[in-house]
Design goal:
The complex is a heterotrimer. By secondary structure, chain A is α/β, with parallel strands linked by helices. Helix content of chain A is 32%, strand content 23%. In chain A, helix 8 (191-208) links the parallel strand 8 and strand 9. In chain B, strand 3 (98-101) and strand 4 form a beta hairpin. Classes of the chains: A alpha/beta, B alpha+beta, C alpha/beta.
Chain lengths: 346, 383, 324
Amino acid sequence: MSEDTILQVKNLRTTFHTSRGDVQAVRGVSFHVNKGEIVGLVGESGSGKSVTCMSMLRLVPDTAEVDKDSSVLFEGSDLTRIRGRQMRDIRGEKIAMIFQDPMSSLNPLIPVGKQVSEMIAIHHPEKSKEERKQETLSLFEAVRIPEPEKRYSSYPHEFSGGMRQRIMIAMALANHPDLLIADEPTTALDVTIQDQILKQLRGLRRDYQTSIIFITHDLGVVAELCDRVEVLYGGLIMEEARIDDLFDSPRHPYTLGLLSSIPSVTQDRTRRLKPIPGSPPDMTNPPRGCPFAPRCPYARRICAVALPEFTTIGAEHRSRCWLLDPEAPASNNPFRPESEGQTQEM
Amino acid sequence: MEQKWEMLSSSNEDREKIWSRSRTFAGDVWFRFRHKPTALAGLVLIAVLMAFAFFGPLFTKYDYAEQNLTVVNIPPRMTVYDAPDGNGYLTITQNLKLLRVDQDGRLGEQLSRVRDDDARSMTIFDCGGTEVGLYYGKTPYKVCNPDKLTVYHHRTIWNRSYLLGTDALGRDILTRLMYGTRVSLMVAFVAAFVNMIVGIVYGGISGYVGGMTDQIMMRIVDVISTIPLTLYVILIMVIMGSGLQSIIVALGSVYWVDMARVVRGQVLSLKNQEFVVAARTIGSSTRTILFQHLIPNAMGSILVTVTMLIPSAIFMEAFLGFLGIGLQPPLASLGTMCNDATENLRTSPYQLFIPALVIVLIMFGFNFVGDGLRDALDPKLKK
Amino acid sequence: MDSSTRIQHLLEVSNLTKYFDAGRGRKVHAVEHVSFAVDEGMTFGLVGESGCGKSSCARTIIRIYEPTEGTILFEGKDVSHLSQRILQPLRRDMQMIFQDPYASLNARMTVRDIIAEPLLAHHVVKKREEANEIVFRMLERVGLTREHANRYAHEFSGGQRQRVGIARALVLQPKLVICDEPISALDVSIQAQVVNLLREYQDESGIAYLFIAHDLSMVRYVSDAVGVMYLGELVETAETDELYRNPLHPYTRGLLNSIPVANPKLARQRNQSGIEGDIPSPIDPPAGCRFHTRCPYAKPICAEETPLLKNQGNGHLCACHLYD
């Protein structure tokens, strides 16, 4: 754990006990976040990206069980071990969260200004009401809510989806957290508003050196925002890379698939998009080998029976794929560029 | 070794496979339901009571209307005196007679009276040749030797002939309880069923058609619900006369308002959901939309309302019985049994206690099931 | 029946207007004076932010809502004021795919029954069992398998559900399918699946789509022509390539600039800005050009006069005072 690391997740495992059997949502996820860094957790729904973050803050429902060997080190304490009171102190003050649906996180009966100011009061009871109001107003200004004075006493339903998400961000920032976890904050919003929110988050990192974990299914958004990316699939990290490395030289077929399914407004439109065929695996019965094997166009026999370990490709770049094994043949292997001629044969 | 690098061929089936066991919505609900102990306990309780009510009479040798005036008000646990002839015990009946009771607690014949001995406040009976005296000068009455004036050795034993005792007309309470529970459950089920049908139709039309129709239909419901339901039921009973049918008609014609409101609310919220809109764009008929889309999806709330309605119907029936405008004798219901018991409340409290206990058990059962069902249908409610 | 000089479109919407009652005498200007046409085998994309009226427009065309004004011609026949009873047989040729793959399928029905419902409604088959073969074929057509037929919708992933919704819309082999944001609720990787599926089916059958989306990125891959809506009005329409090559309306440009660039190097260099602020309330839309409150190029005239949709060449229509 280097000096700069503020969060270190090790071997996180979460299982949900449901009526349909045990859902192994997260199956041993390890990653870290440095100070002032924006890390993207990317994956399709059901890949375990949200559950990873919920488990870190122990916000998972009672039906979920976080494995005992998991550890989540945040500023020296293990979040999986600490007691309720300490956890509450960390949530909201040191680590804040914003969600996909801001309406469900806001109390519809309380004016938004009061909700933000109470957020401050929870962790800083010594501040006076007037102080808190001033702080709230400057937060509203920071997230660019027009006419903050007037909006202070408005109720959540009077705001549009984008404005509500800004209020959520203001609330998350109320106590200047060291880490902000953003769980698909823009998925439900229009692109125009998404663009505005992404700008906001970039500004946040620039101005306060806040670390951000950004959860999304859209690699396009990741490219705009993140420094480093963890690609999740079937409850596992498939590839980890700095953003440029991921887009320049992806080293996992799943990442390749995600990249080629992104639409572009500049490419030739008669070219068909290349979607990843099939559907994400059913995590009540995850595939024995690599979870992506059934959908992978390059899958070998071994992929179906054994889970590959990480192969280190470069600095902060590692990937879980059998094709990176030194023994792997070069034919039909996207990661051996010299074999391109042979790819056609298949 | 080399084989492991051969290409893996995955079919579309592999890619789209769903592993989890297929379970219907009802299956899901049942899973959550049976993982809730109170709900399951309620269900077992209801099953036991129903078995008791419907199969119990097969195992009893009495009839609910059969009177036996020699054995009135015999409690389930009675005080018996050693018979002087050594032939079992004797017990005192409420009309100051002596009954033989055998070793196990079965009731036998009545002793014949020899004479009254007013001077000593005693009635003398003939017990297999010996005279025994029943002293009635002071309560508790005692059986004694008329010559020596010594009280025979006495003890309390369980009544084996009438397990739960007899009532003021000498009828077996256990048998009456079975029939009473049966009548109460039947009244409740029929009333609930009628309410469900009326409620679904009324609420369904009101919610689905909407607009002015909905307004008028709901105002009618409002008017009905401003009259206290109890009063309304009593009025119907008075007009129609007592009897099983009138109870069912009375309960059926009143309690549907809640059901109608529930159904209407459900239909209103469901009919704008996308799958209903989809059915309309497909060109499905109104009947299909109502019976395949709206009602099945509203069924959960309807069932919860029904299970909550059954205990209140049972309670209302018992209440009417208690007031004396319910069933006519000799028919028994839990309410009329309670009513009958009030006359002998001081001497035979068990007669009130037993049917009241059954009412309580039924209420518990249905409320537990209703609660469990509601939680099972809406898992979000809990967290 | 029509004069031969006029080309008959499969769907022709002219001057379509839909107001909703918002109470207290106010009304929501959901759709105002929208006109466009969809030809056989073609796809018309309708794009705009949420609240711009694109879904209301779709639902008015398929007559879930009654139009306040304007006409809807389907195969030359005016369907805008037909009663639901007369409309019923026509629905066979005009189907719809919905946005929310969770809410648009009845949770109490198996996939088999869901896909068979249109067949039964239009008496293509008499009994449910007769539909089996058609249902199986349709399931395979959308990339699912026979085994899925007996499962319930809630057991599927989002993308699989949406394919069930598509199977339901296509099973009657309609001439037009209105796709009301069919991909907005899906993961990007799954969106491409759905888009490709719709395109493949179009190539095979010559079906026409009215494809509604809230951003311009995916629309490009399905549409032959695109219309951009803002606050109930159509502000720009053009052939797809023309629109993306040469967007005229400041709103269209803003929408294009808002799309995240899936290339970190370009994304860092990029300094074009999207659109500031929020879409105003459709209950009390701004006077003049409705976009003037957020438009970086707004002139005084924009607040006063409503610009008309004018041809700017190449069949490219744009409603903006900048091009007067």
